[in-house]
Automatic annotation (TrEMBL):
Matching InterPro entries: EF-hand-dom_pair, Nucleobindin
GO molecular function, one term: calcium ion binding
Keyword Signal belongs to the record: yes
SUPFAM superfamilies xrefs: EF-hand
Keywords, comma-separated and alphabetical: Signal
Species for this entry: [Emmonsia] crescens
Gene Ontology CC: endoplasmic reticulum-Golgi intermediate compartment
Identification of the protein by name: EF-hand domain-containing protein
């Protein structure tokens, strides 16, 4: 009985030491939830948040950068209409672009953040804006597998889909390499330029 208790406590300690992958949906501030779930960062300031999401380091957020930060074009938001996406962007820019310049300047972001303005939560999720590999890593692999996982452990539907995507990309790369070796790719010649078969 004591041996069982010791083993149980040791395993429990290891599980707890790994950290939490709990649902952070109870955090009311969207930016904080986004930083925790998407970047594993819980301590940040408005300046670092802005710079991290200024993807081209221009000192302004464009519509495309805000759209990407909120993950509006991610497959998890495929059900959102373009009209709803535009409403979301309009509301964000209404808060952080008071001069209606079409961009959110870092200086305006900082000033308005100090005044207590925050990015709204539109119920569209935490803002998935990484590539497929990054999103798989932080939202599935870390949560269900961890560092000690072997290839044999990766049997969840998400794992299978992830490897299928890799196989598809590899097949496409092989096909492209074959096409690049060809002097003429007949499939690319419009039909009107092809010699019609003689009868």
């Amino acid at each position: 009985m004591i041996a069982f208790l010791v083993v149980f406590l040791a395993v429990a300690r290891l599980c707890l030491a790994h950290g939490s992958h709990e649902d952070h949906g109870s955090i009311e501030d969207w930016a904080t939830r986004h930083m925790i779930e998407e970047h594993h960062i819980s301590n940040f300031d408005p300046g670092s948040f802005f710079m991290l999401h200024d993807y081209d380091s221009s000192g302004v957020w464009t519509v495309d950068e805000v759209r990407r930060t909120y993950g509006l074009d991610d497959s998890s938001n495929a059900g959102l209409t373009e009209e709803r996406k535009q409403q979301i962007l309009k509301e964000i820019f209404g808060i952080f672009d008071p001069q209606k310049t079409g961009v959110i300047r870092q200086s305006e972001w900082m000033r308005l953040s100090r005044e207590g303005k925050k990015l709204p939560d539109f119920g569209t999720g935490p803002g998935h804006h990484g590539d497929l590999e990054y999103e798989y890593e932080i939202h599935h692999f870390e949560k269900y597998h961890g560092d000690g996982a072997t290839e044999e452990d990766l049997t969840h539907p998400e794992d299978i889909e992830h490897f299928r995507q890799h196989d598809h990309a590899e097949d496409a790369q092989i096909q492209l390499a074959k096409l690049q070796q060809m002097a003429i790719v007949e499939a690319n010649i419009p039909i009107k330029f092809l010699k019609s078969p003689s009868r």
